[in-house]
């Protein structure tokens, strides 16, 4: 039996003081369950509302691309600067330290490589994502690609169905079909389709008129970096995205293919969380690089 000695009656009831109810900080997420919100709060910094996600999932379709040949040598030292890690389960299990305590956005689909067209993607069993303690599951959606649009939208839909009961948010990763024009109209459509089908986060690309893409997407958007750019341009990309309302970046090549990856990820962090202007962030990059 529990120890019943010295049980004291409560005294401080705060009568007359209204209970503090949390106003959730993230767009479109107020009605999610506690587990979802807890996980999203690990990915996005509740103070700034934004996130620097470090993407190194490229190997799942590109193999050992430049900068990712040895994750342990090039990526592990950067992990501490990221708010969230985005990778596939093989690399997570083999190479990401379990003592790091960083949230993971788990690449949860597979099916094609750069050697073939996108096709027949499958999604992992949500129980495996739970076992890997994923803070989010990411699946690709090929809007406008006739070979895979229906299948990848269905993948997203099914992943949301599977992940929701476990309180795991899903990220829709918009893959741009070869014949698609990379403009705000296209990205607005792709982002909105992901959100309407249940994505809690959308990852897409920055484009002119991005504020419209953000405005019509009811959940947070993070941008991919795309191909390696000179550092100032990468910082400008991040700055413009944040100023247009993006909730962060999910960048890979512009970090790990930089001459000074630790410096650039910290400078990107200053842009994302402090709104630092690109010129100042470049100065920060150069100072850190020294
Ligand atoms: C690509 O397959 C992955 O989804 C990447 O995580 C994504 O493209 C972001 O990486 P990057 O900034 O290199 O474009």
Mean pLDDT figure: 95
CATH domain class: Alpha Beta
**Low-confidence segments, ≥5 residues, pLDDT <50?**
none
The CATH superfamily name is: Aldolase class I
Q: In the CATH hierarchy, what is the architecture at level 2?
A: Alpha-Beta Barrel
Number of domains: 1
Pairing-aware structural class of the strands and helices? alpha/beta
- How helix-rich are the residues, as a percent range? 25-40%
Q: Give the number of DSSP strands.
A: 10
Characterize the structure shown:
The chain has 290 residues and is α/β, with parallel strands linked by helices. The chain has one domain: TIM Barrel, CATH 3.20.20. It is built from 12 helices and 10 strands. The chain has helices spanning 34-43, 59-62, 71-74, 89-95, 126-131, 149-163, 184-196, 210-215, 231-243, 253-256, 261-274, 278-289, and strands spanning 51-55, 84-88, 104-107, 109-110, 122-123, 136-141, 170-174, 201-204, 221-224, 248-251. The strands form 2 sheets. It has an 8-stranded parallel β-barrel with strand order 1-2-3-6-7-8-9-10, surrounded by 6 helices. A two-stranded antiparallel sheet has the order 4-5. Strand 6 (136-141), helix 6 (149-163) and strand 7 (170-174) form a beta-alpha-beta unit. Helix 9 runs parallel beside helix 11, helix 9 crosses helix 12 and helix 11 (261-274) runs antiparallel to helix 12. The radius of gyration is 20 Å and the shape is globular. The termini are far apart. The relative contact order is 0.13. Ribose-5-phosphate is lined by residues 55, 57-58, 61, 86, 173, 224-226, 250-254.
